[in-house]
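seq as requested:
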Amino acid sequence: MLRMKQHAWLNLVKELHKHYDCNRCKDPTCCKIAAQLSKEDLQKLLLAQNMNQKEFIRRYCEVSQLGLYLKPPCSFLRTDKKQSRCILHTSRPYMCTVYPFSSYPGMLLNIDICPLSAEIAEDLKELRIEVMGPDEPKGTDDEGEAVAEVFNALDKLAPKSAMGDEKHTNIICGVGLYRLLLEKKRNETRFTI
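struct tokens:
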């Protein structure tokens, strides 16, 4: 069941990304956070760099209890006076393609350090107020709190980011709110053409 939810969530994330501009970041904070690599990610990067696995891992990676990560800050980020860009953009790791979203449905990462994430969080907040009114929801979000605890525990096992040891701010809200946000963004786009 979670796999189906993740698949639908990742399709939603892909669609939402089209309505936000990630390229305006001159100094991308996302590239200063260790990106976890799957086996598929590693294979794509090995092909893109035309390197053997042992040399690539020695040069660009670090290993933690959770697996293999790119060392932060990312070695594949190139910065000039106007913008920064990934030189391996088409081969970048999966984590980089969905950032600032988590693969966990409803989770938005690093609002305190990522301008795009902060913008999406603000849009979600405004939309929630439009839909539900200005009062904070009553009660607690037990699922959200449980997921946050799991992510906090995992963060302790992951390599430290190049941004220091501080814990970053993430939010979890219902996927339905993200769907409403996408619909709102689609409508805004229709009216501006």
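Residues 103 and 193 are 32 Å apart (CA to CA).
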